[in-house]
């Protein structure tokens, strides 16, 4: 018996709320007419089988493989997402026209592929027409299923490509006409069918398939049971269950919103039943789930794109991301523990906690595929092959337990869900190709990188702060993939010039792009948590920011202490990096929550923040000053406030 049986937690009410959210966003998949829904499911099934077949048997030439992938993604987008949110659920004539045009693009490229090679990529008039058509389709699909902010970014970059001669000299260029831009986007490997779409085609879809098979076999519930068995007996057990469960699911989901929806449907009601405020429960889930994109071994689309853009093997990226990801979850766990002690929340009765060994045995059919995935990556398999082989292992392993056993319905659901979950990622990768195409065409990346260095005066700390601010601002409206691509081209070169390791510069950008999802005022992940918790969105976002405050500290630490990324593995560097990180995270969590050995006065919390800032800068003087301040506050809390709790309130 699991946690859901013991506490009678049901997710039906939550599902209704999430369905309403999907309807409000314009997603009409669940409310399509029957014949349209069946046809859409058939398209989704064909797309999934195409991706799996080519992944196992060998990919088609890049332009064909990527165009077919995008054709399916665009077609499903125009069927599943409305032109206007106020439209009814019937697919309109103009939607069907967009669907036909979506498939016309790959058909045209397949038909002209041989001649395209022989003429050296020189565009014909019809190439230009098809290129402009594809641009319009991608931008419209982005508006429907990703959001207006990314559309604005794409249009700004396209406008910059046109009007380069009219820009300030620092960022100006000669300018390009419509035919040159259309050719760049359509028939080269540097536009819409560039690196982001390559990653979507070869890596991301396979990992989405892996995650969907795990989901339909009940992986989320089993992981939550395991997390509850590990943490349920401690103070704040339900919230710690959410943190551990989100971390476990984050190892294979790579999606913050999917993580919130999947685990939050169960953990948030449990937290509320044990006394946590709804806003805090939603904030905990949002904070824990946001790290799904930085938690190995599956880190989301941005990490795969990072591998392609930097030339660093994906396994090396996972290794470098491991310690920072663990530190992040440690900081969230500290915040949860301090809040539980501050509010004196009750613990869960021991008889309601499932036995650890029995729960672990139940999870083995799903743990083994994850181990297989990591093992295959270690021995040198590509991420594509590793994900598909691990999925096969999961299917076979599921038959060893009635709870996880795969059947025809589950198999069908996993395949179609893989395609549905891939639509927004596919469209986002396509429009990101527009951005990368303009960056490559105009050279704007290096120009803006030099501008950042001029503004910061070549000081590393100032450059890191500027990059952090830019990441958070961009992250308030863009998906992680898009903001990573933009900033990796602009800010990463500046950081590398100042001595930050290449992997450190790119992970720094990725981290702050991810944390933007729980940073008000937008805070998409926090608002998803608020919807599940039935809590005010802004209040939940503020709680999520307080809980995840360690994420603002960790990237600075691994830039100053590369040992945390396994770049410099000297024992002293690793020791001081871990020691400083743990001290800093403890202080941040204490100051943010307002509790350490007892309630903290506001002035003590401010002093604590100052101590952390001093510790960030790795010079002996600031380190000593920061540690002395922190020790002084801890001593005050330990020996005075704890004995006089009323004074601190």
Report on this structure.
The protein has 649 residues and is mostly helical. It has a domain at 561-649. It has helices at residues 3-7, 12-24, 34-57, 62-80, 93-111, 113-118, 125-145, 148-162, 178-186, 195-216, 219-231, 237-253, 256-273, 278-290, 301-310, 314-343, 356-378, 383-398, 408-442, 444-456, 460-475, 480-490, 492-497, 502-515, 524-533, 537-547, 554-560, 571-593, 602-616, 620-641, 645-648. The model is unreliable at 4-24 (pLDDT under 50).
Summarize the structure.
With 649 residues, the protein is mainly alpha-helical.
The main pleated sheet reads as: none
End-to-end distance: 42 Å
- The overall pLDDT, averaged over residues, is 84
Structural class: mainly alpha
Shape: globular
Proportion of helical residues: over 70%
Number of strands: 0
Rg, nearest Å = 25 Å
Count of runs of 4 or more consecutive helical residues: 31
The portion of residues forming beta strands comes to: under 5%
Q: pLDDT under 50 segments (min length 5)?
A: 4-24
Notable features of this structure?
649 residues; mainly alpha; 74% helix; 0% strand; globular
């Amino acid at each position: 018996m699991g946690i859901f049986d013991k506490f009678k937690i049901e997710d039906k009410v939550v599902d209704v709320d999430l369905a309403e959210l999907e309807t409000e966003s314009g997603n009409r998949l669940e409310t399509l007419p029957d014949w349209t829904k069946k046809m859409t499911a058939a398209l989704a099934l064909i797309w999934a089988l195409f991706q799996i077949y080519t992944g196992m048997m060998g990919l088609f030439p890049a332009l064909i493989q990527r165009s077919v992938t995008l054709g399916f993604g665009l077609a499903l987008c125009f069927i599943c997402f409305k032109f206007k949110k106020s439209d009814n659920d019937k697919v309109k004539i103009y939607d069907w026209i967009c669907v036909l045009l979506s498939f016309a693009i790959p058909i045209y490229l397949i038909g002209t592929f041989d001649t395209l090679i022989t003429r050296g990529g020189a565009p014909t008039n019809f190439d230009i027409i098809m290129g402009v058509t594809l641009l319009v389709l991608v931008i419209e699909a982005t508006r429907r299923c990703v959001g207006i902010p990314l559309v604005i970014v794409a249009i700004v970059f396209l406008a910059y490509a046109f009007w380069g001669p009219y820009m300030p000299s620092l960022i100006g260029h000669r300018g390009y006409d419509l035919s040159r831009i259309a050719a760049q986007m359509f028939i080269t490997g540097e536009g819409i069918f560039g690196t982001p779409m390559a990653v979507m085609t070869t890596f991301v879809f396979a990992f989405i398939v892996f995650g969907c098979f795990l989901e339909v076999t009940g992986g989320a519930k089993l992981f939550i049971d395991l997390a509850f068995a590990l943490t349920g007996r401690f103070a704040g057990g339900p919230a710690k269950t959410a943190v551990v469960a989100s971390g476990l699911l984050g190892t294979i989901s790579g999606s913050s919103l999917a993580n919130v929806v999947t685990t939050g449907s169960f953990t948030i009601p449990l937290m509320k039943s044990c006394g946590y405020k709804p806003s805090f429960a939603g904030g905990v889930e949002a904070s824990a789930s946001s790290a799904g994109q930085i938690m190995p071994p599956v880190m989301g689309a941005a990490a795969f794109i990072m591998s392609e853009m930097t030339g660093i093997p994906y396994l090396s990226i996972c290794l470098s991301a491991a310690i920072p990801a663990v530190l992040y979850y440690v900081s969230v766990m500290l915040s949860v523990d301090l809040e539980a002690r501050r509010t004196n929340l009750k613990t869960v009765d021991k008889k309601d906690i499932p036995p650890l060994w029995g729960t672990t045995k139940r999870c083995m059919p799903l743990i083994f595929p994850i181990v297989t995935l990591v093992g295959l990556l270690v021995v040198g398999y590509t991420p594509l092959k590793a994900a598909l082989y691990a999925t096969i292992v999961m299917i076979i392993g599921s038959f060893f337990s009635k709870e996880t056993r795969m059947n025809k319905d589950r198999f069908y659901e996993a395949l179609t869900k893989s395609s549905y979950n891939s639509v927004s990622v596919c469209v986002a990768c396509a429009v990101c190709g527009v951005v990368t195409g303009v960056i490559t065409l105009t050279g704007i990346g290096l120009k803006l990188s030099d501008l950042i260095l001029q503004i910061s005066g070549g000081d590393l700390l100032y450059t890191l702060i500027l990059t952090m601010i830019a990441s958070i601002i961009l992250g308030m409206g863009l998906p992680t993939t898009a903001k990573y691509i933009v900033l990796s081209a602009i800010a990463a070169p500046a950081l590398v010039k100042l001595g930050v390791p290449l992997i450190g510069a790119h992970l720094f950008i990725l981290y702050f792009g991810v944390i933007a999802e729980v940073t008000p005022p937008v805070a998409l992940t926090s608002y998803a948590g608020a919807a599940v918790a039935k809590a005010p969105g802004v209040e939940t976002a503020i709680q999520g920011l307080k809980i995840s405050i360690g994420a603002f500290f960790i990237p600075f630490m691994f830039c100053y202490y590369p040992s945390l990324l396994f770049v410099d593995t000297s024992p002293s560097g690793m020791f001081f990096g871990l020691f400083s990180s743990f001290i800093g995270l403890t202080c941040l969590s204490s100051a943010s929550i307002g509790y350490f050995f007892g309630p903290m006065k506001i002035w003590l919390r401010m002093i604590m923040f100052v101590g952390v800032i001093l510790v960030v800068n790795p010079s002996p003087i600031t380190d000593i000053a920061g540690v002395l301040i922190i020790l002084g506050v801890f001593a005050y809390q330990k020996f005075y406030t704890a004995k006089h709790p009323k004074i601190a309130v």
